């Protein structure tokens, strides 16, 4: 596979990323209009799921924005966007329980989540440095420097790949617990799945883009070294 082919694949992956973002927003908006049959808000569902797993001390906080929901492992708090926190809808319950899935992973020391947390400080630093090393290396013909930049970038790609099973596992936990705890009905399970699956696409697209970008950098580096 040459650099031109990878560049074309990269463009397709970027297109997939835009489509995934459009899909997740559209799916969330669609099922935000579908009321939860049990009348639970995102906060209600999250609180019940946390308590069922003994996480009584994990608070739930509302945050501004849309799809800004996340679990903070440092402060051990679930933060839900206002449309999720306050509303009673399929989207709200699905997203809220997904974030609680991360809190449960944290409690159980889910291996991939532990690895992701350990990688984060290193990747946070190397991902900021790598573009400058790669650019400087190619501009000045310092291929060892460019190679170091590519190595640093590969850590960011690995981080993206590690994120995938973390997100999939959180969604699987959410779907299982929602049914087992009666937070959603059997008829709503498929709708919940559509919300969670659309969100998962964004992580898949991001990982694919990073992986193809890494391949492109490696090929450019190898071609440059061969020419010299």
Unreliably modeled segments: none
Number of beta strands: 3
Q: What number of structural domains do the residues give?
A: 1
Give the quaternary arrangement of the chains.
single chain
Number of helices: 7
Shape: elongated
- Biggest β-sheet strands, sense, barrel: 3 strands, mixed
How confident is the prediction overall: mean pLDDT?
92
Helix content, binned percent: over 70%
Rg is 20 Å
Strand order of the largest sheet: 1-3-2
Order of helices and strands: HHEEEHHHHH
Global structural class = mainly alpha
Distance linking N and C termini: 21 Å
Strand content: 5-15%
Protein name: Zinc metallopeptidase
Pfam families: Zn_peptidase_2
Organism: Paenibacillus lentus
Keywords: Membrane, Transmembrane, Transmembrane helix
SSE layout and pairings?
Layout: H1 3-31, H2 42-52, E1 60-63, E2 70-72, E3 77-81, H3 82-86, H4 90-108, H5 111-139, H6 143-180, H7 189-227
Parallel strand pairs: 1-3
Antiparallel strand pairs: 2-3
Task: State the gist of this model.
This protein has 228 residues and is mainly alpha-helical. The chain has helices spanning 3-31, 42-52, 82-86, 90-108, 111-139, 143-180, 189-227; strands at 60-63, 70-72, 77-81. It is built from 7 helices and 3 strands.
């Amino acid at each position: 596979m040459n650099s031109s082919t990878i560049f074309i694949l990269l463009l397709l992956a970027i297109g997939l990323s835009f489509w995934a973002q459009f899909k997740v927003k559209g799916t969330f908006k669609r099922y935000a209009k579908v009321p939860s049959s049990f009348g639970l808000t995102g906060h209600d569902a999250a609180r019940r799921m946390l308590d069922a797993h003994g996480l009584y001390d994990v608070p739930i906080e509302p945050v501004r924005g849309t799809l800004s929901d996340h679990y903070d492992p440092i402060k051990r708090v679930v933060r839900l966007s206002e449309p999720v926190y306050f509303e009673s809808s399929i989207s709200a319950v699905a997203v809220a329980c997904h974030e609680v899935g991360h809190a449960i992973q944290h409690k159980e020391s889910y291996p991939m989540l532990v690895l992701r947390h350990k990688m984060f400080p290193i990747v946070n630093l190397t991902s900021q440095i790598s573009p400058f090393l790669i650019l400087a290396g190619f501009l000045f013909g310092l291929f060892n420097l460019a190679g170091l930049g590519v190595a640093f970038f590969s850590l960011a790609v690995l981080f993206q790949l590690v994120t995938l099973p973390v997100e999939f596992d959180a969604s699987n936990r959410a779907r299982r617990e929602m049914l087992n705890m009666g937070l959603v009905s059997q008829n709503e399970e498929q709708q919940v799945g559509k919300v969670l699956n659309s969100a998962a696409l964004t992580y898949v697209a991001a990982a694919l883009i990073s992986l193809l970008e890494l391949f492109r950098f490696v090929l450019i580096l190898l071609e440059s070294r061969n020419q010299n």
